[in-house]
């Protein structure tokens, strides 16, 4: 793997019809922001070869919204990513990344945020950037890292969704 993209799922509804967290779906804002982030990443040339997706409803829907921008990506739904901690997310990405250039993980906080912060620290990113990622890694945010041959990360981008101030969804 030479690039890792961490993509947090879009804004989800507060509850599901089943009452289970796993079944929570994206809100209209979550769908909109997931489409926009997928388009933004693709416009910047960040196209994954492999996408690891948590099997929850909201992560599946996030990938479905972004997928049209990445027509060559192969998606794999990975049970280990549902509420995985940062170590588990990194392990799954590294394991899968042995056979491809760019891996995207569509998952959840706090694991994605913690991993983004850890990779920023390991890559000697500016302290202001590390502090920003520690403070806030909102829904539909993405963090991108180049990974060298020794597995060391280098910051390649931190992207937050544009919020529509006039919409309440």
Short structural summary:
The chain is an alpha/beta fold. It has 5 helices and 6 strands, in the order βαβαβαβααββ. The longest helix has 16 residues, at 28-43.
CATH H-level name... which superfamily?
Phosphoglycerate mutase-like
Radius of gyration: 15 Å
Contiguous helical run count: 5
Cα shape: globular
Note poorly predicted spans.
165-169
Largest sheet: 6 strands, mixed
How many strand elements? 6
Secondary-structure content class: alpha/beta
Q: Assign the CATH topology.
A: Rossmann fold
Q: How are the strands of the largest sheet arranged? A: 3-2-4-1-5-6
The ordered H/E elements are: EHEHEHEHHEE
Assign the CATH class.
Answer: Alpha Beta
Please give the CATH architecture: 3-Layer(aba) Sandwich
**Approximate strand percentage:** 15-25%
How far apart are the first and last residues' alpha carbons, in Å? 37 Å
The number of distinct structural domains comes to: 1
Mean pLDDT: 94
Helix fraction bin = 25-40%
Folded structure, characterized:
- The chain is α/β, with parallel strands linked by helices and 169 residues long.
- It has 5 helices and 6 strands; from the N terminus they run E-H-E-H-E-H-E-H-H-E-E.
- A 6-stranded mixed β-sheet has the order 3-2-4-1-5-6.
- The longest helix is centred in the N-terminal third of the chain and has 16 residues, at 28-43.
- The termini are far apart.
- The model is unreliable at 165-169 (pLDDT under 50).
